[in-house]
Automatic annotation (TrEMBL):
Name of the protein described by the UniProt record: NAD(P)H-binding protein
Domain NAD(P)-binding: 9-191
InterPro entries in UniProt: NAD(P)-bd_dom, NAD(P)-bd_dom_sf, NmrA-type_oxidoreductase
């Protein structure tokens, strides 16, 4: 298979990791990979390795269609445009339309678990993009990424210091996954492993409640940590006090409410199906942070 593989958002953490795994894939030469970004200067290191870097702006539809010309398989990584309602969905609609205009053979999209039944404010962006893909006439696959394990690292240092990890998730369980495992699965899917017309649920290997997460932190770092369950208003106040932007705190609290309601309680073997290996457990991610001396990150 010699199709051209395009990765949007290539200067972001997930996009860069996907390209790293593509380069390590058998049969994927650098010349087959296109990396899209608003600022190509940020990807000079990838260009030096033979990857074609393309200027890509989700709010410039004509430029997107030109960038996608001749692309066989496209990984559409959801954008971070959460500053105003509707902006991200409009960007995704424009990208799907540009892919259709350019004759892209297959589009893969990074979504979220159960966007059709979610308390998370940005879930409609993902659901709307999935619907647009299904109705586009393009070949498509959807990668529903579970909540990243790395999202927990924002509060890990404070939790270790205080011995308490506050949450609005109650007793709810979910299966957090490492960004690296999502990237590995996305690279495999983009390189040809993903079947058309299929949704892949990319989850970690175990369903965890915050009591479990606190216990993992205690065991790995050798410091007592307990989960403290709060209502949503108190949890939001703690997050804002900790310095999170006021528009981010409600998103995190809503995500925890989604966990509490059981709407993220999804366990899947799709990562192994795509990559041939099981995803890393949270304890392993914590251990890597400990060994790198970054527990306060």
């Amino acid at each position: 298979m010699t199709e051209t593989l395009f990765v949007t958002g290539a200067s972001g953490q997930l996009g860069r990791a996907v390209i790293h795994h593509l380069l390590a894939s058998e049969g994927v030469a650098p010349g087959r990979i296109l990396a899209g970004t608003r600022d190509p200067s940020k990807l000079a290191d990838l260009a030096a390795r033979g990857i074609r870097v393309v200027a890509l702006d989700f709010e410039q539809p004509a430029g997107m269609a030109q960038a996608f010309a001749g692309v066989g398989r496209l990984l559409l990584i959801s954008t971070d445009a959460l500053d105003r309602p509707g902006r991200r969905l409009a960007q995704h609609h424009a990208a799907v339309a540009a892919a259709r205009a350019a004759g892209v053979g297959h589009v893969l999209y990074t979504s979220m678990p159960n966007p059709e039944d979610s308390l998370v404010p940005f879930a409609p962006d993902h659901l709307g993009t999935e619907v647009a893909l299904r109705e586009s006439g393009l070949g498509w696959s959807i990668l529903r990424n579970a909540w990243y394990q790395e999202n927990l690292l924002m509060e890990l240092g404070a939790a270790l210091e205080r011995g308490q990890w506050t949450t609005a998730a109650g007793e709810g369980r979910y299966a957090p996954i490492s960004r690296e495992d999502c990237a590995r699965a996305a690279a495999a899917a983009l390189a040809g492993k993903a079947e058309a017309g299929r949704i892949y649920n990319l989850s970690g290997p175990e369903l965890l409640a915050m009591d479990d997460i606190a216990a993992h932190a205690s065991e790995v770092f050798g410091r007592p940590v307990v989960a403290v369950k709060l209502d949503e208003a108190k949890r939001a106040g703690i997050l804002v006090q900790a310095g999170l932007p006021p528009f981010i705190a409600p998103v995190l609290v809503a995500s925890e409410a989604n966990i509490r309601a059981g709407k993220f309680a999804l366990l899947s073997d799709d990562v192994r199906a795509l990559t041939g290996r099981a995803p890393a457990p949270l304890a392993a991610t914590f251990a890597a942070i400990r060994d790198a001396g970054r527990a306060a990150a």
